[in-house]
Amino acid sequence: MKRILLVDDERWVRTALKWTINKLNLPLEVVHECQNGLEALDWIKVNDVDLILTDIRMPIMDGLTLVKELSSLNGAYNVIVISVHDEFQFVQQAMRSGVTDYLLKPIEETELKVCLEKWLTKISNEELTSKTIVSEKENLPLSTIDRVLEYIEKTPLDQITLKEVAESIHINPSYLSQLFKQQLNIKFVDYITELRIEESKRLLQHTTLRMSEIAERVGYSDLAYFSNNFKRIVGCSPSEYRNIKSKTGDGKLNKIR
Fold it and tell me: Which residues contact 169 (CB under 8 A, 6 or more apart)?
């Protein structure tokens, strides 16, 4: 069964979608629901999901921002956006950002079925390709990971994505994700997140950069998500961390522009 996350600020829409998906009798299961993009990002960070169905218009964090932030997580996420006819320009923007497909409200059962079946076929083909690649390259030397780490070390944190790293060493992103976890015993996204948080701690402690500037430098386009992620990992907010280090005298602040 493939796992689906529903993201929509209207509860009745989520309920209707879940009921219809169950009715289709496809190998799909709605495992969680979120009211906005920020809530979805927090959930995705600690849970596995195969497909995300998200509305475009939502408070706090909309669907387009969610799609953008997902790319910063460096995972291979499949997203289907939901919109209305007069928002088609946003749908086009989302498609350029790499979303899998789109649905227009009101969503008809037949259209939903066609969309989900097309996605299932796509995923099946990708999994077959990945298995073939893994079987052919299961003895790939550790030097591949060395090349990955070297690329990460030389590349600014705000420019690192799983896709870009994979392309730099000419291998499949899905295979790289599997190889990274196998060789280093940590997910690619978690490794990059640790680097981003450590660098943000350094910038908070030793520079006078604004929070938004630090967030952008380490690869977070959304300040709220950066702050939330920082607090979850470090145990305090970025501003609290800076104040603590300032009071304890740990580090001299330098102006950076």
Answer: 144, 147, 148, 151, 176
Query: Using one digit for the tens of pLDDT, what is the confidence trace for 34-68?
Result: 999 999 988 988 888 899 999 988 998 988 888 88
Instruction: Please tell me the pTM assigned to this model.
Output: 0.56
**pLDDT tens-place string over residues 162-194:** 989 999 888 888 889 888 988 899 999 999 999
Q: What pLDDT, on the 0 to 100 scale, is given for residue 29? A: 93
What is the spatial distance between Cα 19 and Cα 24, in angstroms, rounded to a whole number?
9
Cα gap 80→100, rounded to integer Å: 6
Quick one: how far is CA 120 from the chain centroid? 20
Closest CA to 97 of 140, 148, 136, 54: 54
64 neighbors 89 (Cβ within 8 angstroms): no
> For residue 153, how many other CB atoms are within 10 A of its CB?
8
**CA pair distance 63, 49, nearest whole angstrom:** 17
